[in-house]
Amino acid sequence: MIDPRALRTFLAVCRANSISGGARLLNISQPSVSNAIAQLEQSVGAALFARSRSGISLTPEGEVLLRRAEAVDSLISGAEEELRLARAGVTGPLRVGGTPGALVSLLPDAVRRLEDKMGHFALHAVERPDHDLADMLHRGEIELAFVTTGLEEPPEGIEEITFAQDPFALVVGRRNDHLPAEVSLRDMMAKRWVLPEARGAFRRQIDALFMSAGVPVPQDVIRCDSLLTTKAMVRNSSRLTILPMKVAAAELSIGVLRAIAIREATFQRSIGIRKLKDARLSRLGEALLDIMIHSSKL
Length: 298
What we know:
With 298 residues, the protein is of the alpha/beta class.
């Protein structure tokens, strides 16, 4: 059986990238750390670090154990915070992550329903690119990841559930009031644009719209992953962007932005969550997932 204290020492060494650095993090002697690592390696029957003149690096077995150690560390930290909140009559914490568009499309309505069902609770939400979210799930840093779904198979050990679809539209400010209610992207190539930078699912879908129109992705473009900044630039200039309707819903409702149908938009964006397969969610995580399942119109 793995000693949890040795696992904590192993994690400190990994984070510091040295035995001496791990000792400083834990405020214990370097020989104590070396002994703990040696005992842990004997316990698991494998070398966890490769030693060389330039320092240490994880072996394949060490990489496997690191993921588990990070998950255990997150579990313990979460338990401590959950107990503290319970004493204050608050449920949680629930930690979620997501891409900006998926979070803004799904989380606000789910939180409103969660408040009606659970009362006082603590929730932490962080924005991250698609490729970071799977690692965060495996490390136990988040329970649920809000993402664009249906484009590719989820990574190993992760399942995906789709809850909503949202059509893409050309989104413009008042300086483009002259544009018609429907356009082809072929006719918009001379315009200036604001488009996503991160090479995730959202960008791939937007690139696919230009491919459907038989035109290249614009070169006169500001690349920006902040939805707030993107909408502000479009609102205050003649630049165009492409967004799902729900992402721009607030600005569209008060008339500071306008949505124009894209002739080539023959597919809709699907959004939902990813989570670890067969993982037991927290009480708050189960409640949020149940709300999204029962409120989905798909």
